[in-house]
Write a structure and sequence with these properties.
Blueprint (H helix, E strand, L loop, with lengths): L2 H9 L104 H20 L3 H21 L54
Helix pairs in contact: 2-3
């Protein structure tokens, strides 16, 4: 089926597209909110920016699909295959991810950042400059350098923050997250009982308080 045909049929009120086969198709930006896509084959499909909220995608094959900035809020993905998927900035809040396969999926995209040694050198130079200015009695200039140093470090910290998917309230019970890239993500409101974490550990409730590397 052509993506345009799919959009037209949905716009005409059709919602049942179970076992749809559109592997490798370009479905970027498509709107299929609330549609029935159970058992569909969407392997390696381009679903960037797609609206799949409240869809029924249980048992679907999404292996290697790109879902960057897609809307999957409250979507049923029970037992679906999301391995090798790109889910950067994807909204999975409230989604049913029970027993889903997320092996080696990418849920964040850390930005490049300056090496640690360079930041140490920059901070050392700031300290030396402030020390010289204070020694010369130029307190206002020294405080200005202090403020600049704090600003540079704050920008560096914010820049390193990952562009992670939103998993707030998602149901990850029994999910396989082996090797998934979840750097810096907290799961304080997600349900993860029985899930296999990226490092191979079985979920324990206290792990919610630590960011996954």
């Amino acid at each position: 089926m052509h993506p345009q045909t799919l959009s037209q049929r949905y716009a005409q009120g059709e919602k049942n597209f179970s076992r749809l086969d559109m592997a490798g198709a370009d479905l970027s930006g498509i709107i299929l909110a609330g549609a029935d896509l159970r058992g569909s084959n969407l392997q390696a499909a381009n679903l960037n920016g797609a609206n799949l909220s409240r869809c029924r995608l249980s048992g679907a094959n999404l292996r290697g699909a790109s879902l960057r900035m897609a809307n999957l809020r409250r979507t049923n993905l029970h037992q679906s295959n999301l391995s090798l998927c790109s889910l950067v900035w994807c909204d999975l809040s409230g989604a049913d991810l029970r027993e889903v396969d997320l092996r080696n999926a990418i849920l964040d995209q850390p930005r490049p950042h300056p090496p640690r040694w360079l930041m140490m050198v920059i901070n050392l130079l700031f300290l030396v400059a402030m020390g010289v200015l204070v020694f010369l009695g130029r307190w206002s200039a020294g405080l200005g350098f202090l403020g600049l140093a704090l600003l540079v470090n704050l920008v560096a910290i914010l820049w390193r923050s990952p562009t992670a998917a939103n998993l707030r309230g998602a149901d990850l019970r029994g999910a396989d997250l082996t090797g998934a890239k979840l750097q810096g993500m907290y799961l304080l409101r997600a349900h993860c009982q029985g899930a296999t974490l990226p490092n191979g550990w079985r979920y324990q409730f206290w792990l919610n308080w630590f960011p996954w590397d």
